[in-house]
Backbone:
């Protein structure tokens, strides 16, 4: 199984970012300072990379070498931009937008279902999204390698971009009376899925073209996000294969 590579040292990480390597996450030592370290912090903020501040003990577990207070994980795949997704000419394309889904196994399961259902690309946010690593690749059964994944600075950017390209954005949310069975998925669309804990934020829900929900009959009122995504994509396939 291909896994993410780790990169150690402040200068090495700075150069990797500048050369546009697919940085999945940067771990920075708490309480560290210095001009070079500050330069790395500034570059991370500029590029809006996923990062966190951790105790030195965690960095020491990554390597016995001199990490200088910084370790980066380089994703085992190439990330694409929105222009690339739309450059793949296809009638009635289908995309997924994942908002605040940070569990790697849920992400892997979604990617596996998406690949099987003919999704043309998945959009995730730079910060706060599940990392594309060995666990997510394994859960996806390798589907991640066959599916373009796009990282954006803000989910709102993706929504505006799709809408400007005549791609309807449909949010999966219980905050509507309209079910997936009354929603038209036959034309080009992007399905927006939120996390189980937070759902889709109200500011983002206000931007979408339509909202749809899965009708529930049991006492538990919510599904695992990967299962919910499967229900949505199954309905898309049903409509498109009449």
Residues:
């Amino acid at each position: 199984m291909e896994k993410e590579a780790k990169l150690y040292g402040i200068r090495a990480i700075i150069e990797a970012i500048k050369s546009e390597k697919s940085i999945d996450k940067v771990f920075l030592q708490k309480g560290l300072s210095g001009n070079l370290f500050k330069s790395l912090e500034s570059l991370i903020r500029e590029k809006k990379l996923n990062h966190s501040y951790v105790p030195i003990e965690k960095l020491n577990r990554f390597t016995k070498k001199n990490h200088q207070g910084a370790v980066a994980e380089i994703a085992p795949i190439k990330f694409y931009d929105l222009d690339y997704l739309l450059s793949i000419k296809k009638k009635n394309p289908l995309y997924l937008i994942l908002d605040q889904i940070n569990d790697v196994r849920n992400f892997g399961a979604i990617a596996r279902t998406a690949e099987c259902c003919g999704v043309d690309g998945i959009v995730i946010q730079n910060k706060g999204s599940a990392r594309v690593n060995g666990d997510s690749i394994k859960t996806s059964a390798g589907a991640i390698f066959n599916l373009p994944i796009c990282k954006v600075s803000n989910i709102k950017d993706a929504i505006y971009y799709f809408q400007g390209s005549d791609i309807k954005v449909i949010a999966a949310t219980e905050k509507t009376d309209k079910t997936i069975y009354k929603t038209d998925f036959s034309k080009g669309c992007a399905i927006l899925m939120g996390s189980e804990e937070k759902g889709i934020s109200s500011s983002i829900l206000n931007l979408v073209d339509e909202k749809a929900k899965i009708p529930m009959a049991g006492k538990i009122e919510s599904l695992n996000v990967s299962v919910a995504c499967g229900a949505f994509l199954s309905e898309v396939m049903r409509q498109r294969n009449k």
